[in-house]
Please model this.
Amino acid sequence: MINVRFEQPSDATRVREVNEQAFDSQTEARIVESLRGAPDSISIVATKNDLVIGHILFTPVSLEPPVGFRVAGLGPMSVRPEDQRAGVGGQLVRAGLEACRQRGYSAVVVVGHPEYYPRFGFEPAHTRGLTLRDFDVPQDVFMVVELAAGVRERLKGAVRYPSEFAEA
Model:
């Protein structure tokens, strides 16, 4: 059985291992470590038999010009390879989006697989008038989901992720 909960301080080492295994790199683990505990961030883990097997992080992003509501960036999300394709990532995304709603975020952006995230309501960000500042990625991998009514018309501008993403 998979349990999804907020990250605890004792999870840090295992979260690093899961990110390194899932991405076969240290980049995402460094991003998570540099943002751990950042104001208004949301860090959630998935466990199986009390062992961390997945992790997702949401951090505030800014829009230029400012839009008057809060937007979070999803990422990174990781699931250890032997637990992928078993619904763990979906549980993390759903729990994270709900936590974002509860903490007053009106929308969430992600740079991710265009065949995966639409099942959670994400759509191409460029169709909403959003661009990604500081990163050059294909249009179809930059997506957004609205969490609050009435933001669709105001959700426009250049999205800027925290500087830790560029520094990793």
